[in-house]
Each structure stands twice: as structure tokens, then as C-alpha cells.
Inverse folding.
């Protein structure tokens, strides 16, 4: 490919990162209005989980599809699904329709966000250049994340939340057409192996069953929840047995026998499991507890978007001197400061504290993401770069899906408990209105402090759990560093 063609394709793929950043921050900004309008505060966990679940269950399948029909067509199909899901979310008039549309959007997002990183490996064989491009991907995500809260807040305040989803459609079409006309895909050796339909079916069934069981902890019967979780775990065990015999497995077991790669996967899972708590619940904190508008609630995401890019630049420059694990440890420390601020914050905490916490959160992501992404492709065998890239993405999404379900259960438990203890004075519908600054004026002013305290108890416990995850990640990281240093000392002797 010519330099011009490579540049255009890279820019087109960067639009997928922009869409991801735009969708995440716009939706998080609009979420309080969505749950208020659709009467869905008890479905808060589901709104997040179905999108992430759609991404998770098909992510390895997208990379396999790319190996067979080409990454160009695969990316286009995924991006088209993302756009279709956006349109149907905008048209939703009830929560069930909205959840179905969001699942479709998530399925598309799984391919739209992972295939570009596989294509980058083809376009940029030089690791340093590839690292810079991944840094640009972070920058495009960050730039969109800065614009997203402002646009999303303005749209929600002036128009309605339905319009925030239409923004993705023209961007998706531009990206699809650019890839069609300018991307010359390298020829690949065609694979004669049969597609691992059995492994794919078991993987999807196991993940859906397991995560549905987790999501139903607070709303379903205890026996049903236990059955779903046990069945999901059994199916995951069966999956690994089936994959050992598959000619072209969806998830090759050799990935899990690669020590450095497994460390990368674990760090991805822990850090992103904590990360999702901030992005989802801090805008709700700002609007529900502080009574701010959707625009100001969205602004809590802006400092993190700016420092995300700064962290990616700093991370790539200090990694050669510090090494990847120390760089990631610094990112984890930034995370710890962010969530430490949120755990210490009270019901009436000032907006500036949320902004400071957001800045540290974004810097932590920036330091960690690029380093881990390149590390996965370096630690994997050359033949496994596509599947290792998509599997790392799968684990990140699974971690976010799993933890968003747990966070949703924590919030629901606090809300249900608070309503029960209020002896009929407060209802779930009233708490729905509390999360939306436009409808909060309809609530009895004398009950607002109690309602805010109920919501605060749930949000506080969510931040506390995320903090625990980060402590585990830091301890694990330090343990790996000590093990590596001990091995080096033994070799010297």
C-alpha cells in the first residue's frame, strides 16, 4: 500500500476508536435520562451488561471470521451492525427494545474495536511505529471522549436522549467506505480446517449463562441464580476440553500456557474491571447526588479523556527505562488515587473532587493500555497475534461485563434496602427521577436528603469494590516483578 493509502486506512480505523469514545461518554452522560424516561433504574446493570456481553461473546469469532473472509469485510460488517444498533436504540420506546438494540450494537462493537488492532499489525510491522499508531488510537478515543460529554449533555438538555445515538451513523458510514476503497488487504494462506462451531457454541452459551446468572443475583430466585452460575462454569470447563481436540480452536489452549501472555491477560482483566465503575457511575453521582445537569455530569469524563492521552505519551516514553510492569504499576497507582478519592467522597462532595479523580483515572488508563496492548502482541507467537489480540480484548470486555453486573447488583441491593427501610415514603420510581436533573424537581424536597443517602450507599460500595480490585492488581504486579528479579539474580550467580 502507498503511504497515502496507509494513512487514509489508519484514519478510517481511528474513527472506530472515536466512535467507541463517543458512544461511551455520550451514553454515560445520557444514562440518567434514559433510565428515568424508560423507568429502568433497576435495569441499570443490564443496560451496561448487555452491550458488553454482546461484545464479549463474539470477539474471538470476529478474528476467526477475519481469517476466512478478510479483515476488511469483517470490519465493515461489524461497523454496520454497530450503526444499526445505534439507530434502533434511538427509536426505542421501552427498556426491552432498548436492551435488544444495545446487544446488537455490542456485537458489532466487538469486531469494530478489535479488528483494527489486527490490521495495524499488518500495516505496521515495525513495533515502534505500531506503538505510535496505537497511541493515536488512544488519542482519537480521548478526543471523542472530551467532545462526547459536551455533545451528549447538550443534546439531552436541549433535545432528548434519543438523538445521542444518531451521531454514530455518519461516522460509521465514512469509515466503512474509506476501508472499501483504500485498504488493500494482504493475501493470506487460506485455511482448510473446519470452523469450530462446537467450540463457538459452547463459549457463547457458557458466557451468556454465567453472566445472566450473575446479573439475576438480586432480581431472580436464589436457586435459579445458583443453577445458571454452576451450568456456566461447567460449560467453560467443557469448552477447554473441546478446544484441545479442535483443528482450528476458537481459543487455542496454548495461549493460556504462555506465562508472560497470561500475566498480560490478568492485568487487563483487573484494571478494566475497576475502570468501568468510574465511567458508568460517576456521571450518575454528579447528577443524582450533586443535582447537576447532564452537561455538567458529562464533564466529569473530560479530565480523564485529556489525561488518558497524556498517560499514553508518558507511558511510551518511560517504558524503555522502567520496563512494562513498573510502567503499569505507576498507572495502577494513579487508579488507586482516583478511586481512593471516590471512596472518601461524601454525599455533598464538590464537583472539583470528581474532576480530580477523573484526571487520575484517565492518566492510569493511558499509562497502562498501550503498554499492555503492545505487550500482548510481543508475547504471543506470530501465528497467534490475531487471536491473542482479540482474546485480550475479550478478557477486558468480560471483566467489564462481569464487574458491571456485580456493580449493578450492589446498586440494586442498596436501592431496594433503602426503599424497604423508608416504610413507603420512597419508591423505586422516585429514585429513577433522582438520577435525572430534569425530573428531580418533581420530587418532595423533604425526602431528597434520604433519597440521596440511599443512592450514595450503593455508589460508595461500588467505588470501594473497584478500589479492592486495584489493590489486588498492584500486589500481583509487584509479585511478578519480584519473581523476575529473583530469576535474574539466580542467573547472575
Amino acid at each position: 500500500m502507498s503511504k497515502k493509502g496507509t494513512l487514509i486506512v489508519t484514519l478510517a480505523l481511528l474513527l472506530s476508536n472515536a466512535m467507541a469514545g463517543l458512544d461511551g461518554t455520550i451514553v454515560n452522560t445520557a444514562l440518567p435520562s434514559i433510565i428515568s424516561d424508560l423507568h429502568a433504574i433497576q435495569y441499570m446493570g443490564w443496560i451496561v451488561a448487555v452491550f458488553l456481553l454482546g461484545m464479549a461473546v463474539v470477539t474471538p469469532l470476529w478474528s476467526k471470521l477475519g481469517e476466512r473472509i478478510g479483515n476488511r469485510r469483517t470490519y465493515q460488517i461489524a461497523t454496520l451492525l454497530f450503526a444499526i444498533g445505534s439507530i434502533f436504540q434511538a427509536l426505542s420506546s421501552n427498556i426491552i427494545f432498548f436492551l435488544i438494540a444495545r446487544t446488537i450494537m455490542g456485537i458489532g462493537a466487538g469486531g469494530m474495536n478489535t479488528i483494527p488492532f489486527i490490521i495495524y499489525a499488518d500495516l505496521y510491522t515495525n513495533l515502534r511505529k505500531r506503538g505510535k499508531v496505537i497511541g493515536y488510537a488512544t488519542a482519537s478515543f480521548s478526543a471523542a471522549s472530551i467532545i462526547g460529554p459536551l455533545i451528549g449533555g447538550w443534546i439531552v438538555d436541549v433535545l432528548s436522549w434519543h438523538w445521542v445515538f444518531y451521531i454514530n451513523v455518519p461516522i460509521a458510514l465514512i469509515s466503512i467506505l474509506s476501508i472499501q476503497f483504500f485498504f488493500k488487504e494482504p493475501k493470506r494462506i487460506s485455511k482448510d480446517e473446519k470452523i469450530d462451531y462446537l467450540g463457538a457454541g459452547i463459549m457463547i452459551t457458557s458466557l451468556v449463562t454465567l453472566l445472566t446468572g450473575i446479573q439475576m443475583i438480586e432480581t431472580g430466585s436464589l436457586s435459579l441464580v445458583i443453577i445458571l452460575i454452576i451450568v456456566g462454569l461447567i460449560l467453560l470447563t467443557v469448552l477447554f476440553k473441546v478446544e484441545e481436540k479442535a483443528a482450528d480452536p476458537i481459543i487455542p489452549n496454548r495461549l493460556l500456557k504462555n506465562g508472560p501472555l497470561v500475566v498480560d491477560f490478568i492485568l487487563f482483566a483487573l484494571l478494566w474491571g475497576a475502570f468501568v465503575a468510574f465511567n458508568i457511575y460517576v456521571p450518575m453521582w454528579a447528577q443524582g447526588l450533586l443535582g447537576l445537569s447532564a452537561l455538567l455530569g458529562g464533564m466529569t469524563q473530560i479530565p480523564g479523556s485529556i489525561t488518558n492521552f497524556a498517560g499514553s505519551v508518558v507511558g511510551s516514553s518511560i517504558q524503555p527505562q522502567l520496563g512494562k510492569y513498573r510502567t503499569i504499576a505507576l498507572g495502577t497507582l494513579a487508579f488507586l488515587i482516583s478511586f481512593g478519592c471516590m471512596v472518601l467522597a461524601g454525599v455533598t462532595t464538590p464537583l472539583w473532587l470528581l474532576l480530580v479523580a477523573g484526571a487520575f483515572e484517565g492518566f492510569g488508563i493511558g499509562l497502562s493500555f498501550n503498554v499492555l496492548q503492545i505487550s500482548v502482541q510481543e508475547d504471543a507467537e506470530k501465528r497467534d497475534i490475531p487471536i491473542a489480540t482479540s482474546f485480550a480484548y475479550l478478557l477486558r470486555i468480560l471483566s467489564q461485563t462481569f464487574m458491571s453486573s456485580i456493580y449493578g447488583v450492589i446498586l440494586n441491593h442498596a436501592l431496594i434496602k433503602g426503599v424497604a427501610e423508608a416504610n413507603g415514603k420512597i419508591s423505586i420510581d422516585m429514585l429513577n427521577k433522582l438520577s435525572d436533573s430534569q425530573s428531580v424537581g418533581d420530587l418532595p424536597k423533604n425526602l431528597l436528603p434520604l433519597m440521596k443517602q440511599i443512592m450514595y450507599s450503593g455508589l460508595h460500595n461500588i467505588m470501594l469494590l473497584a478500589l479492592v480490585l486495584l489493590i489486588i492488581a498492584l500486589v500481583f504486579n509487584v509479585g511478578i516483578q519480584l519473581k523476575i528479579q529473583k530469576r535474574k539474580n539466580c542467573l547472575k550467580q
About this structure: Residues 448-492 form the longest helix (45 residues). The two ends are 50 Å apart (CA to CA). The CA atoms of residues 71 and 115 lie 7 Å apart. Residues 197-247 form one domain.
